[in-house]
Predict the 3D structure of the following.
Amino acid sequence: MIKLKSNAGNSLIKFTFQLRERQVRFYRSIIKNDDAFAVAATLILGYRTDLSSEILEIYSKTGTIHALSVSGMHVGLVYFILNYLLWFMNRKQNWKIIKTLLILISIWFYTLLTGFSPSVLRASIMISVFIIAKLLAKNTNSYNIIAFSAFCILLYNPFLVWDVGFQLSFMAVLGLIYLQPKIEKWLPVKHFWLSKLWNLIAMSLAAQLATYPFSVYYFHQFPIYFLLSNLFITIPTALIMYIGIIILIFRLNALGPLFEWLINFTNMGLDQIASLPFSGISSIWLNKIELILLCLSVLLLTMALAELKKQLLLYSVILFTGLQCLITYDKLLALHQKKVIHFKLQKNYAIAIVAGQCAVLFTNLEPTSKAFNYAVKPALDQHRIKQITFRSSNITNVLKDNHIFD
């Protein structure tokens, strides 16, 4: 029997985490505003620890939460920066090989630095295949690259198939590849700048439509102004990424105030959009059967619009009608429900007596506390509770009564 070393993790991953910590500390030294620092560290380095609940809520309500996840866009920006800086190496084949190796090493180092999230892994594999195919002058098929990326990621960790980021990332890319060109054809635009705007709108529509069922299922809300907010952050996010990476590479402290102002400007703009009336639909709860019906309905609707087939549109409407019937049935059940819900909390207690869409909550939590908003309220929302009465008294005697609902 051989005793293994204790507390000895992977030395490469340990090095990259230590390196990321140094970059985070550097951002902290040049950015004074806490929210701006948290967004910078999250957006560029995938360091989410310091994000406040207020910032998360703003990005979630506006449908731009993807901007706070290091994803394919971030890896793509790294590639474009390096490809532009190393343009002079395109003259000879040997230099092209060296350039390709430098870009691949940089992309995978950035992937390691950000913690190997599924979306970054997917983007890194796809861009790597694209770069190698370009070097070898081979044609590439987008769907084959996506399938190869998924195979590699699931070979590394098969359980990532249940990861929310993995699912949303691949659905978004499939939507962009399949839907975006078809949406752009709906409205041919000849003017240069208007065509660029329509391209961004088509991109946002394609990604939103492809991820809509899963985003509603997991996050229980739908942002009404997602087009406006995504168009708003397109340029600021790219500038934040470019400036942030340049600051890290060249240690340009002088760009710190501009960097911080740009992040604050983006946060304030999204806050204004989130404050608009009817900014989102919340408390959307679907079970697995309803999720399947919604996925099939959206898939058929997408195919009907893309290929202009009335029969597929009819099938989509039928499935969507069936989904609405199930949702209505769930609401009717909620009107007659009677149950007691015990919440397992570390330092607090919470017990809810539910009757219909009303609940009496015996707890020592405040309505504004994080424990209530993240542990208790979502469960009550899932049970379609619309009226909550708080009680701080002891519930022991109440629970002894076997006929509390009679």
User: Anything to note?
Assistant: Strands lie at 222-223, 280-281, 338-343, 350-355, 358-363, 387-391. The CA atoms of residues 217 and 267 lie 26 Å apart.
